[in-house]
């Protein structure tokens, strides 16, 4: 079986290295400019996996090859951009990693597999869980251990967050909201920040201890 693995973040490149030891006929593509119809046609993959991809995939590739995206939500809920952040800020603590077949809609394709994903803890912990889920989902799909089904139920759609939305404009929120706001924007995402008296406080991490929020940050 011939597999194309499209990813660019460090943790998914590490995931590729793990998977390629098990499935030797895998190719990594991390440069979106190289994802062309000609390249894919020459490779002729059985599957193209997109565990983490921030660019539009050419429609001709989607229509002619089996493209599998992994989205961090219980689809059809939270379709669209920034699913992790859009769920955490709403204090959702448990969701799913959903592997689905890409089509010409926005996260609307048939579901192959899902796996429970906890959104508690810091971003590094969440990313570790996502990576493990991706490993398990991709392995099962390559092995043919899935049942394809249509998405069902009420859908919601959210836009990808922009860097300017990382500004915490007021502290007039609950501790839980502020904590969620900071932790959902830990590296590698645009960190939460607060502007005050000509300075910019950048929040790197946070913890709730009793009635207080303890944080690490930088004052610019």
Q: Care to describe what's here?
A:
This protein has 220 residues and is of the alpha/beta class. The protein is 28% helix and 29% strand. The protein has 6 helices and 11 strands. The strands form 3 sheets. A 6-stranded mixed sheet has the order 2-1-3-4-6-7, covered by helices on one side. Strands 9-10-11 form a 3-stranded antiparallel sheet. The chain has a two-stranded parallel ribbon with strand order 5-8. The termini are far apart. The mean pLDDT is 96.
Brief digest:
With 220 residues, this protein is α/β, with parallel strands linked by helices. Helix content is 28%, strand content 29%.
What string gives the helices and strands in order?
EHEHEHEEHEEHEHEEE
What is the arithmetic mean of pLDDT? 96
Distance between the termini: 52 Å
Low-confidence stretches: none
Strands across the major sheet, in which order? 2-1-3-4-6-7
**Number of continuous helical runs:** 6
Query: How can the largest sheet be summarized?
Result: 6 strands, mixed
Number of strands: 11
Shape: elongated
Structural class: alpha/beta
Strand percent estimate: 25-35%
Backbone CA Rg: 19 Å
């Amino acid at each position: 079986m011939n597999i194309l693995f499209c990813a660019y973040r460090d943790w998914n490149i590490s995931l590729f290295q793990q998977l390629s030891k098990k499935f030797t006929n895998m190719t990594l593509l991390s440069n979106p400019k190289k994802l062309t119809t000609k390249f894919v046609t020459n490779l002729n993959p059985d599957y193209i996996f997109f565990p983490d991809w921030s660019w539009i995939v050419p429609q001709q590739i989607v229509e002619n090859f089996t493209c599998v995206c992994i989205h961090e939500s219980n689809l059809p809920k939270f379709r669209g951009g920034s699913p992790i952040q859009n769920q955490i800020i709403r204090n959702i603590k448990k969701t799913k990693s959903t592997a689905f077949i890409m089509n010409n809609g926005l996260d609307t394709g048939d579901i192959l597999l899902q796996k429970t994903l906890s959104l508690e803890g810091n971003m590094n912990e969440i990313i570790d869980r996502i990576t493990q889920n991706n490993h398990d989902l991709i392995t099962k799909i390559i092995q043919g251990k899935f049942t394809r089904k249509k998405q069902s139920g009420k859908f919601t759609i959210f836009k990808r967050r922009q860097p300017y939305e990382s500004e915490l404009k007021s502290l007039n929120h609950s501790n839980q909201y502020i904590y969620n706001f900071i932790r959902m924007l830990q590296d590698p995402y645009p960190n939460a920040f607060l502007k005050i008296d000509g300075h910019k406080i950048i929040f790197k991490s946070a913890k709730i201890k009793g009635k207080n929020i303890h944080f690490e940050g930088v004052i610019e």
